[in-house]
Specification:
The chain has twelve helices and 18 strands. It is an alpha/beta fold. Strands 5-4-1-13-14-15 form a six-stranded parallel sheet, sandwiched between helices. The longest helix has 12 residues. The radius of gyration is 21 Å and the shape is globular. The model has no long low-confidence stretch (mean pLDDT 96).
């Protein structure tokens, strides 16, 4: 039975999982539209409103509305509302949609530390620069509480990895010494909120980043499926901490059609792996064996060890072929 048949919803990351630079990744649209279970989109990107995200999903052929989108901007606003009095002043570093969410929540949005805001709310926006970051740092140094939508250090784009919100947050942390309260993944709140939207009792969290998507799904006590289409690739999986390890690994979205046994770490594709001192030796395979089959074979051994392997040593033609592509 396929993984899609053993779960009742998909909680989907966007960048690097569903799309890259707004362009759908291979097989994603067909799988989501034909899987027969509801999809909720859970994104750490706070630069777009839920409606904007829904519109973009519609443009690539997915039937989605704003009520099926959960953003880290929404999540951090919810936390701030619980901490701050109604009508409090907040300095928002981020997109206009983030500022609108703050206003809708009853906050007074200001632009300057001179307005003595009660809090600084920071989310991803490509226009953020020195002036906004400096106002945030000044406000925090004057006693404002600090909240961040998410701490992703990088952002996948069609040209490669760009600066993420976490890297911009790091500038303020370096200046103030204050760490923000973060609402986004890997915190579990967004996942549990997303599952509730569709009354899901057996959700599957799907993502491309181990430290956010997978840790977040694991923190929410959900099954996790890692796709090798974005940030965290083969070597990151081999070195993953127990908290970062997904239940299932797929080369891409199409492998959601695999059975749970096929997608879990374990020997497959004719490959065999074993520890030899500090290294893992990978043998076997054939001309039809795939890279992800070799990876799952290695992961079963690597994750059973006390420490990550020093090197992966390919000892067959098929093993050399696939390992040479790992990064």
């Amino acid at each position: 039975m396929s993984i899609l048949k053993t779960h009742d919803s998909l909680l989907l990351d966007l960048d690097g999982t569903v799309w890259e630079g707004g362009q759908a990744l291979q097989c994603v649209v067909d799988v989501i539209n034909s899987c027969g279970i509801p999809a909720v989109y859970v994104t750490n990107n706070a630069s777009r409103s839920p409606q904007t995200v829904a519109d973009m999903l519609g443009e690539i052929g997915l039937d989605a509305d704003a009520h099926r989108v959960v953003t880290s901007a929404q999540a951090v606003i919810k936390i701030a509302r619980e901490d701050l009095p109604a009508g409090a002043k907040v300095l928002v570093i981020g997109a206009e949609s983030f500022r609108a969410l703050a206003r809708d929540a009853g906050f007074i949005v200001v632009d300057s530390a001179d307005d003595r805001p009660a809090a600084v709310l920071q989310g991803m926006d490509k226009s953020v620069g020195w002036e906004q970051l400096s106002e945030g740092a000044l406000a925090i140094n004057q006693g404002a509480k600090y909240y961040a939508s998410n701490l992703d250090t990088s952002l996948p784009t069609e040209r490669g990895m760009a600066v993420g919100n976490g890297s911009l947050v790091a500038a303020i942390v370096s200046t103030t010494g204050v760490e923000p309260v973060s609402a986004g993944k890997p915190e579990p709140a967004m996942f549990t909120q997303a599952a509730k939207l569709v009354n899901s009792s057996k959700p599957l969290a799907v993502g491309d980043r181990l430290d956010t998507d997978i840790v977040g799904g694991n923190n929410a006590a959900m099954d996790t499926f890692h796709v090798l289409t974005g940030v965290s690739r083969e070597l990151a999986l081999i070195e993953a901490t127990p908290e970062e390890r997904p239940n299932f690994i797929g080369a891409g979205f199409h492998e959601l059609s695999l059975s749970e046994a096929q997608a879990r770490p374990g020997a497959q594709g004719g490959f065999r792996a074993r520890f030899d001192g500090y290294d893992i030796v990978l043998q076997g395979g054939n001309e039809k064996s795939t890279s992800v089959e070799a990876l799952r074979t290695v992961l079963e051994v690597a994750w059973a060890g006390a420490e990550p392997p020093r090197y992966i040593q390919p000892r067959s033609e098929a093993a050399e072929r696939v390992v040479s592509t790992w990064r």
